[in-house]
Amino acid sequence: METIYLDNAATTQVRSEVLEAMLPYFSEEYGNPSSIYDLGQNASDAVAAARKLIAGALNASDKEIYFTSGGTESDNWAIKGVAWANAAKGKHIITSAIEHHAVLHSCQALEREGFEVTYLPVDSNGLVSPEQFEQAIRPDTVLATIMFANNEIGTLQPIAPLAKIARSRGVIFHTDAVQAFGHEAIDVQELGIDLLSASGHKLYGPKGVGFLYVRKGVKMHSLIDGGQQERGKRASTENVPGIVGLAAATRLALEERETEHARQAALRDHAIRRILSEVPYTRLNGDAQQRLANNVNISFKFVEGEGIILQMAMRGVCVSSGSACTSGALDPSHVLLAIGLPHEIAHGSMRMTLGRTTTAEQVDYAVDAVVKTIEKLRSMSPLYEDFLKGR
Fold it and tell me: In the prediction, which pLDDT does 164 show?
């Protein structure tokens, strides 16, 4: 039985072109970029070329790109680094209730240090209100961190107006763009973004590498101390193969973004239409229009998300019930609760995220599997039986 992978928000398969670009830096070009002899300088040149390419993808300067171990480190560094460096000005931070835990837990860590955090609510589609955002800004607000796209429900936030408000009030604006970079058009100058986090493994690059964009002039402290790597801002010997792979994945993503965006959005909409029309007592989670091109998140009444995942896996389809980082948790998704779903419905949710190799035939097979899965689970559900009997 063919395995159909529809969990690309959790991670993606490294592309063969990316792996090919990386391989020499594991063996022939294995030098340390800090070494001054040729082997080291070849590695340094590769890192510099990667930095320039990624900066160009954002319309940034290469001096504003810092390589990290991934999105989680980038989020931690952006939030804690800015908060620590600007604590004399104020200790208030603004974020949203549906951020990734890398952001939420960073904010909670700062709260334990005496910072105050405002967690903005979202509407039923997962959108932050620019009006509520502006009202939350105080004289002591130093940082706002709002994700570009939600990893669970796919909603795209109104980043440009939020960043404009933040800048007009002297507040540094960070966005977690881990799900969006390489998939959505992002111009940091046009959008007014001060800091941006991204990760390689969400765009067919390797795990364990990412970057943080930091606009020139932003005051922040380092998170990792040690050597003078990354212009003295982020210690640790650079992950040269990973950085080369991240750049290769970025280049390919840019080349294919428009065509892939349109193709995946069409498949996404087809899947959503079929599920909502063929399976009763369901709802789409996230904004129907302002959403990632590959994201399908549906709640099914009278069933449990864990049962859906296991049944789908038995039918050869890999899906999830939310963020892969919390897949072992029994509590319902904080994102689904934040958009107003009651616990029992939030528990019965499934996320399918399409990829560059996903075909129309695979989507239809997956939807057929969803129909059969929900029928089977509901046939065993006392809640569904009571509902049908009108209890």
Answer: 98
Contact 240, 33 (CB under 8 A): yes
Q: What is the pLDDT of residues 42-100, one digit of tens each?
A: 999 999 999 999 999 999 999 999 999 999 999 999 999 999 999 999 999 999 999 99
Radius of gyration for the chain, computed over Cα atoms and rounded to the nearest angstrom? 22
CA distance 325 to 322: 9
Give the list of residues 6+ apart from residue 56 with CB closer than 8 angstroms, or none: none
CA–CA separation, 198 vs 183, rounded Å? 11
85-89 own/partner pairs: CB under 8 Å, 24+ apart: 85/219, 85/220, 85/221, 86/142, 86/143, 86/172, 86/219, 86/220, 87/115, 87/142, 89/140, 89/142
β-partners of residue 344 are: none
Answer whether 42's CB lies under 8 Å from 31's CB.
yes
Residue closest to 310 by CA, chosen among 265, 263, 254, 376 = 376
Write out pLDDT tens, residues 128-152: 999 999 999 999 999 999 999 999 9
Burial zone of 101 (CB within 10 Å; 0-12 exposed, 13-18 middle, 19+ buried): middle
Residue 324: what pLDDT?
52
- List the structure tokens of 36: 């001054």
Name residues of the chain where pLDDT drops below 50: none
Task: Report residue 96: phi and psi, to 5°.
Answer: -115, 165
Distance CA(324)–CA(151), nearest Å, equals: 9
What is the C-alpha to C-alpha distance for residues 263 and 293, in angstroms, rounded to an integer?
8
Q: How far apart are CA 67 and CA 230, in angstroms?
A: 7
Number of Cβ within a 10 Å radius of residue 113:
11
Strand 195-199 versus strand 172-176 pairing type: parallel
In one letter, which amino acid is 169? R
Active site residues: 325
As a whole number of angstroms, the distance between CA 135 and CA 352 comes to 35
